[in-house]
Specification:
- The protein is built from 3 helices and 11 strands; from the N terminus they run E-E-E-H-H-H-E-E-E-E-E-E-E-E.
- It has 217 residues and is α+β, with helices and mostly antiparallel strands.
- Strands 6, 7, 8, 10 and 11 form a 5-stranded antiparallel beta sheet that branches. The protein has a 3-stranded antiparallel beta sheet with strand order 1-2-3, with no helix packed on it.
- A hairpin with a 2-residue loop joins strand 2 and strand 3.
- The relative contact order is 0.16.
């Protein structure tokens, strides 16, 4: 409620019992003190952990890619981070593989990714179908450990870009070094019109799959 001041009291601030005095938009008010609730339910804790994961994933992406995602979010009433996070959260909750980049109908994406058994320790061998992507475009591969809480995990729970983009017209395969043996990874393929995301003007939505790193037996 609004507080009435006198010649002897020019302003109020602070709390007394259940009352709090403050200045709101130049108006002196007194309101009831409210302690914010934070029940920390299992669902809330899980959701906060996922949001923290989304933030870490976003920070780990190349700035050129996040700039592109932000640019394509214009007009959607969401930031690139929020749009990408919403998609990835929906995927994780549904038990699907997160794809990093929301779909982009202006660029043909990889159609599918297949996991081939690797005979090399800590390596992921994959092949893919580039679908209708132009032959002069490049496929950029990202990996991320599937479970950040798994004992023995060596890599942080972030996306790592494979350093050698593959020309669409070339052999559609890659042997990707990772830190862990016999470990499940998220794998995402993104098509771009150049081999350098810093100069790319067209980037597809992400195509996602899971793959297990090799272990010599």
């Amino acid at each position: 409620m609004k507080a009435l001041l006198t010649a002897f009291v020019s302003g109020l601030s602070g709390k007394s019992g259940d009352a709090v005095a403050a200045n709101w938009k130049g108006i002196q008010v007194i309101r009831r003190r409210v302690i914010p609730k934070n029940p920390k339910s299992a669902a809330q804790v899980a959701q906060r952990a996922l949001m923290a994961r989304m933030a870490a994933w976003w920070r780990s992406l190349p700035s050129d890619l996040t700039t592109f995602i932000n640019a394509h979010a214009v007009g959607t009433k969401m930031s690139g981070f929020n749009r990408s996070s919403k998609q990835n959260l929906d995927d994780l909750v549904a038990g699907n593989t997160p794809a990093i980049v929301p779909g982009n109908p202006t660029c043909s994406a990889v159609q599918a990714i297949a996991d081939a058994t690797s005979t090399t320790d800590a390596e992921i061998d994959i092949t893919w179908d580039a679908g209708a992507a132009p032959q002069t475009y490049y496929v950029h591969i990202f990996t991320c450990p599937d479970d950040p809480a798994e004992i023995g995990l060596l890599e942080p729970d972030v996306w790592t870009m494979y350093g050698t983009p593959v020309l669409v017209s070339a052999e559609a395969a890659a042997a990707i070094p990772v830190a862990n043996i016999a470990k499940l990874y998220y794998v995402v393929a993104i098509v771009a019109d150049t081999n350098d995301l810093a100069t790319a003007t067209i980037i597809s939505g992400g195509t996602a799959a899971t793959a297990t790193s090799g272990e010599t037996v």
